[in-house]
Amino acid sequence: MTSTIRLYNTLTRTKGPLRTERPDRVTLYVCGPTVYNFAHIGNARPAVIFDLLARLLRHDYPEVVYARNFTDVDDKINAAAAEAGVPIGTITERYIDAYHEDMQALGVLSPDLEPRVTAHINDIIELIATLITRGHAYEAQGHVLFDVASYPEYGALSGRRTEDMLAGARVEVAPYKRNPLDFVLWKPSTSVMPGWQSPWGRGRPGWHVECTAMIGQHLGHTIDIHGGGQDLIFPHHENEIAQGTCAHGALYCHTWVHNSFITVDGQKMSKSLGNVLLVRDLLSQAPGEAIRFALLATHYRHPLDWNSRRLAEARQTLVRWYRRLASAAGDEQVEWKNVAPDAEVLEALRDDLNVPRVISRLHELASAIGNATTEDNARTAAYRLRASAALIGLLQQPAVSALNALRELPDQASPDRLPVSQIDALVAERHHARQQRDFAQADALRNALEAAGVVVHDTPHGSEWQFAAEVTV
């Protein structure tokens, strides 16, 4: 089936209509984290991007099956477990729980499926055996390797020629390989390492084979969309295509979607630079909704530079939008969930997830609340804003509690600032004075607020306030 959704396909290097195996169903698989540590901002970007895509798919399709895996057996996990003196399951459970907690704070909805490698060892062994039988894999010195020469299309996703691949790839060159590009499907485990019995001895799976096996088990031999970070194109996703195509003789995936990299203050994020930003640390600087906004504000295929200004601008935009919502009486009633999202927002999302264009339209929808001439019109405009922002996972909280969270944060705290509760009380007192036509008292309260760094704006629906430092942003 073709769709009104158009996505950039890494395989074809073109943007085109989404194709699905069934007209009423779409399958989406995204490579999830290797769980040996807390999630950093680079892990969060694909989680947020593909949550956005899943939201759009659910709006447009009767059935969506979204799977995002956990890699819970890996040499880094083994090392962390050995250092702590605990089984690998203790490490992986700890960090899976932490990942869920962090992603929930960012408004990432749970996928339909979260398969784990350790629960699919039998499926992996069966897939490897099939590849051997079909002449695409071989056993050597306790290892099983994929024979790259047996698949002439290898390199199509990354656009690399086989003779050029070694230069930029981290490939282990071992004497038991027929070809340096051959990659490991199964490797032996020592007695102190995690391992499972197989026809090739006790061992554990290679990295690339796990996703192909889990996709085949849960989504079928041909899936509609496969997603992940740009760093996975080669070798991981290239190897997935080779395994899946050679094992089943069918197209592996219709559309490949990859998000671009994140830098921090213009530099690559790395442990050596000490600039790896953990999501849970960022949550002490801003609410999860602001972090989500900051991650979405740059188109997913463009590099994103993370810095304090980006986060501050996201927070301040949300403050302005929630203030508009707060000004519409009855905005928080459930009726907005029955309102259709704005057509221009949908059109932008269907055009390769064009969130910058969506944000521009949301500004217009927020302005419509302030420009409304009646309370009913303002409330209708607020419903439209919430319903439209819901497609990208924003503006789903009660306005008052969201504003409190956005205003009062540890990194924004200042001994000279009044508490939000006191500001709200003074603004309410001033509004009452204006209603009583006591303009001298109203002016005195405005002056007191301005002296405390608070700017008051009077609107047809009441008074709004903003910290002076935020006014020009």
Keywords:
16 helices, four-stranded parallel beta sheet, 473 residues
Q: Would you spell out the secondary-structure blueprint of this structure?
A:
Layout: E1 2-9, E2 14-19, E3 25-30, H1 41-60, E4 63-68, H2 75-84, H3 88-105, H4 121-133, E5 137-140, E6 143-146, H5 165-168, E7 183-188, E8 203-205, H6 207-218, E9 223-229, H7 233-248, E10 253-259, E11 262-264, E12 267-268, H8 279-282, H9 288-296, E13 304-306, H10 308-327, H11 343-350, H12 355-371, H13 375-389, H14 399-407, H15 420-435, H16 439-451, E14 454-459, E15 462-467
Query: What would you call the quaternary organization?
Result: single chain
Low-confidence stretches: 410-415
User: Strand-residue fraction?
Assistant: 15-25%
In one word, what is the shape? elongated
Helix content: 40-55%
Strand order, sheet with most strands: 4-3-9-10
How many extended strands? Answer: 15
Question: Which radius of gyration do the C-alpha atoms yield?
Answer: 26 Å
What class, by secondary structure content? alpha/beta
Number of helices: 16
Distance between the termini: 45 Å
